[in-house]
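Students often ask why we bother predicting the structure of a whole assembly rather than each chain alone. The short answer is interfaces. A chain on its own may look different once its partners are present, and contacts between molecules only exist in the joint model. In this exercise we take four input lines together and write out one structure for the complete complex. Read the inputs first and try to guess which parts will touch.
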Amino acid sequence: MSNSRMTVREIARLAGVSVATVSRVSNGTGQVSEEMRRRVLEAIEKHGYRPDHLGRALAAGRHGALGLVFPGLSGPYFTELIQGFESEAGPSRASVHILCTHLRSDSDAQVLEMGRRVDGVAVIGGTVSDDALLRLAEKVPVVVIAGQGPGDIASVRPENPASMAALTRHLLADHGLRDLVFVGNPQGSPDVSERWAGFRQAHRDLGVTPPAEPVAVGLQQADGVLVAQRLLGGTDPWPGGVVCANDETALGVLVGALGRGLRVPQDLVITGFDDVPTAALVTPALTTVRQPVRELAAEAARLLLAAAGRPGDTPHGSLVLPTELVLRSSCGCPAPSAGS
Amino acid sequence: MSNSRMTVREIARLAGVSVATVSRVSNGTGQVSEEMRRRVLEAIEKHGYRPDHLGRALAAGRHGALGLVFPGLSGPYFTELIQGFESEAGPSRASVHILCTHLRSDSDAQVLEMGRRVDGVAVIGGTVSDDALLRLAEKVPVVVIAGQGPGDIASVRPENPASMAALTRHLLADHGLRDLVFVGNPQGSPDVSERWAGFRQAHRDLGVTPPAEPVAVGLQQADGVLVAQRLLGGTDPWPGGVVCANDETALGVLVGALGRGLRVPQDLVITGFDDVPTAALVTPALTTVRQPVRELAAEAARLLLAAAGRPGDTPHGSLVLPTELVLRSSCGCPAPSAGS
DNA sequence: ATCGTCGCTGTAACCGGTTTCTGTTAACCG
DNA sequence: CGGTTAACAGAAACCGGTTACAGCGACGAT
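Now the answer. The structure tokens for the assembled complex follow.
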């Protein structure tokens, strides 16, 4: 039945036809008479033949695979990204290779190596050096997700500065808050950098002096908990509000604040960015900015698949997907609320 | 310099040697004179030649890749798994293919398809049907992570029943709690099934009647928040304690309880399983069971890499990695605490 | 009757490597 | 000096597919 040692030539012998005919039948290309097709399909069925992926890839000069490079952090953001990417690659029969550059120094070399095994690579912004990105783009189509590459490398990212500015303006103007802090490391990722810029811009627009420095920490829930300890545990006065670079840290700050007996938003206002599922469910519900994470990754995969058809033709331009301000109660708005 | 159209034959021509010699030099196999080696290395260096992965894989009959199949849920558990797997595969120059079976009906076919593109597959328990697993194992080495496959398919899993029983006994005997509820769906994953069994066993050991049914929900933080709503929002009496199948749901329950103004552990005891980074940082710190997630995945990758050498030789036996009870304050223990 | 065309099939080259096997050369030994 | 052997290089086969090209019979047109 399912002998794995079956090859085109073996099937050709068994069906009494040539390898070319077997290949034509199994691919649906070229002209094959009904009689031949029947004989070949019968042999294929009977012996459970499936064309070998490597042979096919070698002949076609295509790998049938896409790569996804990410920093290796935990959390729902990355799993969401992976799934969005995969949901687009799967239907095109492209397998997905992943690479975590987490803390490793040889990540540039690894990314280049990956470039030789796939038909296109999506890289999360801030993951690899610009130099490596350019070298990679010489070999294979590249798209940067949530960031901007050097040169004319394509990118897909969410709208960050304007929506973060809108959120910040809401806190400053509508709720009359001052002494806001920004939690996130602008050096760590382009997303955070743009959000920090939007945060400061909103201050300047309203004639308020923004803080000189962000609270530069990572993007995971544990980082948020640590920030809560630092901000609320000491003798310093509490900030008027904590604007977090993403929902995960916001949830960390929230759980830290609640664990200390603080009331949110009465004692402290907290906002996030992403709109992860948990954000709508916690008490108080988290005010945040909705970001189309899955679509971001799916769009990147789509660009790569399109570019893989025409080799050497790396996609151009940058795509900015819209975001949406989601006002809930953690900023002081009444419980059920509408958008901006 | 780095002409990507370089092939063995081209390098052979340029260096004035045969393709066999080029292959020998680039692989370090066989005997090559110093003079030849120098000439070949010079040509390789000068023209930036790197052997093509497909050609090499085809000739070697090996893909140089491992597959990882997971359900496609969010959260730190899976990113941790991916990284553990990758950290072991990377040094062996094996790339990592991933597949999310999330909600898709054709996942069995996809898993089989993946089996034809890699040298070994690690499958998270409960992700694909036993039938598909057996068919897959005929083609390629398979290891089940956190679960047990049918037949003699190898598995790597954490010790679940005993440690969950120890945790439950601690709550029942040391803290004198009753009316515990178990949060998690035993049907959904083998891990949860074993933990539910340990939970019930501890009750029977102490002559306490366990609850007939678990609170069957998913494993994500949002599910925990929903449980908190259901358990604490109605008019029913609160349970004496909430034993969660993993930390994520426990953190969800915790944030739900704190958001309602409950005090933990005074008003409600909550425990988790996994010991994610956040567990130690929240207030109150979460009592849980430490599970070596990275090691689980790394061990699976190791087994697959070893088996990939000898084809058709799927690894056997099951490996159970030890877990550790971590008592913190969410169960009522004093703040800093030692192990079981 | 001859030529051209169309439809179908098979042979062989090719994708880019690895490896077997043969052959040459030189060193070593009796 | 003849013979054995070790070291090394290259030609060719092979991995498992795809496809350019050639060949062949049937048919219609001139």
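Check your guess against this: Residues 293-309 of chain B form the longest helix (17 residues).
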